[in-house]
Amino acid sequence: MKRLHPKRSQAGFTLLEVLVATTIMAIAVVTLLGGISASMRNASRLTYYDRAVMRAHSKMDELTVNHRVPANAEMEEMFDNASGWHAHFSPFETLPGAPQGTPMLERIQLEIWWMESGKRHTFPLEGYRRTTVPLQSTP
Questions:
Q1: Cβ distance 76 to 86 under 8 Å?
Q2: pLDDT above 70 covers what percent of the chain?
Q3: How far apart are CA 78 and CA 39, in angstroms?
Q4: Are β-strands 83-93 and 103-116 bridged in parallel, bridged antiparallel, or unpaired?
Q5: Rounded distance between C-alpha atoms, residue 51 and residue 85, angstroms
Q6: Which helix (H) or strand (E) holds 6?
Q7: Containing H/E element for 32?
Q8: Neighbours of 87 (CB within 10 A)
Q9: CA-closest candidate to residue 94, choices 132, 48, 39
Q10: Are 59 and 110 within 8 A, CB to CB?
Q11: Taking the model in full, what pTM does it have?
Q12: Could you read off the pLDDT of 116-139 as tens digits, one per residue?
């Protein structure tokens, strides 16, 4: 009896099969590492942004209850070497020529800033508080 195919002496993978499998695995690993890297950058950016939002709300609460701030004031301060804030107070709603002590609404425009990767980022926040018309200064 004659055999049509010679029997292989050893079972295993050919060099071509190993190269194809290695190439497929390399592509999968590079793609996976790229995705992980992008996720880490996004998580870091969101951490900075989340911290800025929390600081902005905290600072806004503090400024809203601080009635020692003069009318039309501008204030700024550093949190640390890489972040800080700037606030501007301005009348929002008041009667023209209203006498001192008349209730009015004051706008607080707050901007939190921080440095990330050598670039300045900002988060603006606006709030309002009830106050009274200050003493008018005469020129």
A1: yes
A2: 90
A3: 30
A4: antiparallel
A5: 13
A6: none
A7: helix 15-65
A8: 21
A9: 132
A10: yes
A11: 0.66
A12: 888 999 999 999 998 888 776 544
